[in-house]
Amino acid sequence: MKCPYCSSLESKVIDSRPTEDGHVIRRRRECISCKQRFTTYEKVEEIPIIIVKKDGNRESYNRMKVLNGIIRACEKRPVSMEQMERLIDHIESKLHSSMEKEISSEFIGSLVMAGLKDLDEVAYVRFASVYRQFKDINTFINELTKLLNEKTNG
């Protein structure tokens, strides 16, 4: 690691500890040459995820876009921002663990729907109505019937 004071390439690690979220390691270092101390942060390099849309177009994964959809579905519902953040963290964990570089938007939508179903049924139906593009009341009723059947059989 290059010293920010004298540009020497030799330093020693004095202390290492994870940050609060556990995704980054904070290291205190001391330069061998000038004895100055400095802090570095180390994290795993993540491979960018490309989303393949229904029409075949591709775009970079955008956490805020998914979070905004979840927020809209949960509007005026008893779901905290912390719960929504945990849901999106869980979704991102599944995306990264899939080891795929390209992921379909349908897969992400199904992960969001599964998470919302456990979190809040009204938010789930709201999201499903937009995601599955309900064309009429019958499609909406069919989805509600499936949800009710799962609830009574589950």
Question: Would you spell out the secondary-structure blueprint of this structure?
Answer:
Blueprint: E1 11-18, E2 24-31, E3 37-43, E4 50-52, E5 58-60, H1 63-73, H2 81-97, E6 102-104, H3 105-119, H4 121-131, H5 137-153
Parallel strand pairs: 4-6
Antiparallel strand pairs: 1-2, 2-3, 4-5
Helix pairs in contact: 1-2, 1-4, 2-3, 3-4, 4-5
Task: Please provide a written account of the structure.
By secondary structure, the protein is of the alpha+beta class. The protein has 5 helices and 6 strands, in the order E-E-E-E-E-H-H-E-H-H-H. It has 2 domains: 33 residues; 104 residues. It is elongated, with a radius of gyration of 23 Å. The strands form 2 sheets. It has a 3-stranded antiparallel beta sheet with strand order 1-2-3, with no helix packed on it. A 3-stranded mixed beta sheet has the order 5-4-6. It is 46% helix and 21% strand. Helix 1 crosses helix 4 and helix 4 packs antiparallel against helix 5.
Averaging pLDDT over every residue, what do you get?
88
Q: How many distinct beta strands?
A: 6
For the record, give the distance between the C-alpha atoms at the N and C termini, rounded to a whole number: 55 Å
Number of helices: 5
Reported for the largest beta sheet, the result is: 3 strands, antiparallel
Gyration radius from CA atoms, angstroms: 23 Å
The strands making up the biggest β-sheet line up spatially as: 1-2-3
